[in-house]
Amino acid sequence: MTKNKPSSFSSDEFCQILDKLGATEMVVTGLMSNACIQATSKSALEKGYKVTLIEDGHDSIIKPMRGVFNKILHKKGANLISCTEFVSDK
C-alpha cells in the first residue's frame, strides 16, 4: 500500500482493505504526531472507527507536539493507552 498524504484514509487501497476485513477499530502508532497521526486518527474517528492511540507510540520534531495531539485526539474520542499497557493487555 502506498500513502502519499497524511491520512491513511486518502488511500483507496487502505479503505478497501479495512472494508474487506470488516474492521471497526484500529490502533494508531507512527512518526509525525502533528501530521499523519493526527490526520489518520481524525479520519478514523469521523468514519466511526474506534481508535486506540498509543500515547507514547508517536512523536514529532517538536517534542511537546505528542502531548498536545494526545489531548486533542482524546477529546475527539480516541482511547489513549501506553505501549506498555497495550502489550501487557495482549
Automatic annotation (TrEMBL):
<dbReference type="GO" id="GO:0016787">
    <property type="term" value="F:hydrolase activity"/>
</dbReference>
<protein>
    <recommendedName>
        <fullName>Isochorismatase-like domain-containing protein</fullName>
    </recommendedName>
</protein>
<keyword id="KW-0378">Hydrolase</keyword>
<dbReference type="InterPro" id="IPR000868">
    <property type="entry name" value="Isochorismatase-like_dom"/>
</dbReference>
<dbReference type="InterPro" id="IPR036380">
    <property type="entry name" value="Isochorismatase-like_sf"/>
</dbReference>
<feature type="domain" description="Isochorismatase-like">
    <location>
        <begin position="2"/>
        <end position="66"/>
    </location>
</feature>
<comment type="similarity">
    <text>Belongs to the isochorismatase family.</text>
</comment>
<dbReference type="Pfam" id="PF00857">
    <property type="entry name" value="Isochorismatase"/>
</dbReference>
<dbReference type="InterPro" id="IPR050272">
    <property type="entry name" value="Isochorismatase-like_hydrls"/>
</dbReference>
